[in-house]
# Entry
Amino acid sequence: MALGPILFGIEHREYSQERWLDVSHRCHTDGGEGGAGRVHQGLGPMAPSARHAARSAVGRGGRVIRKGHLMPRQTSSGTCRMCQGTFSKGTMTGHLRACQQRQAALQAPAPTGRFPAHPVKILHLVAEGDGPYWLHLEARGDVRLAVLDAFLRDIWLDCCGHMSQFGIDGEIYVSSAADELGARTMDVTLENVCVPGTTCTYAYDFGTTTELTLRVVGARLGPRQRQAVQMLARNTPPVVACVACGTEATRVCTQCIYDDEGWLCDACAPEHACGAALCLPVVNSPRVGRCGYTG
# Structure
C-alpha cells in the first residue's frame, strides 16, 4: 500500500461574485464536485491552498470540520479472535489477559526458522473510533508508525489514499509532506515513542477527518511474530434501524449522517430525498458514511 500520495478534496464554490476555498467533505474528482471519475492524487508539490489546509488540519489535530455524530450511541461488545467469545468493550482488556486460548498460544514453543530466537517487545494497543467502534491489537515494538498506519488504513479507513497523522507526546508524525508541514515522518518505531500508559491520537483525511484514539494498555516480551500487527478483538458490527421503515439499515446517506439521520435499508434508499447516489454501504468502521469509504 502506498503511503506517499497526498489527497486533498479542495472545493471551489461561487456565490454571486464571492469565491472562496474550503476543505471539502468529499473527494474532488474528474467528474466534478461529488461526481464520478478518477480521484486526483497530489504526487508533486502541494498547491499553496492545499498546503494551508493541511497545516491548519495538523495544527488542530485533524479535527472533524462538520458537526454531528456518526450514529446513535450503543452499548458496544466485541469478539475475542482467540476463543471467539463475546465480551463488552469494558471487559475485553481483562479477558484478553486471562483468555485460556491466548495464553496457550503464548506459551507454545516458538517456531524455528528465519526469525531470531531472542525475545522482542510486543505492545497491546486499543484503537477507539467515534461511536461503538474499537479494536484490540498487538504490534511488535520494532515496527514503524508507517506500518501501523497501513494496518489501520487497510482494516478501517482507506478510501482514496488521503493523508494521515499520529499525535504522540506533542509530536506530529505525518504520512507525507513532513517538511512542508513542519512535522515528523512516520519512520520511527513504536517502542521508541510508545510505552504502557501512552495515549496518542490518529487522524485520517484532513478534509472529512476520521479520528482515533490509541492507548497502549500493556507490553510483553515474546518471540518475534510473523505479523507486524495483528488483531486480538474487534467490536461487533452495530445494528442501526432504517429511519424510514425500522428494518436494519444497510445504506447511509453521506449528507444526512451528520444529523444522525440517513440510515436506510436497500428498499428505502432509492426513495431518499438526497438520492441513492449519495448513499454508501453500512460497514463496521468509524469511517462509515464518510467520503467514499465502502469497507
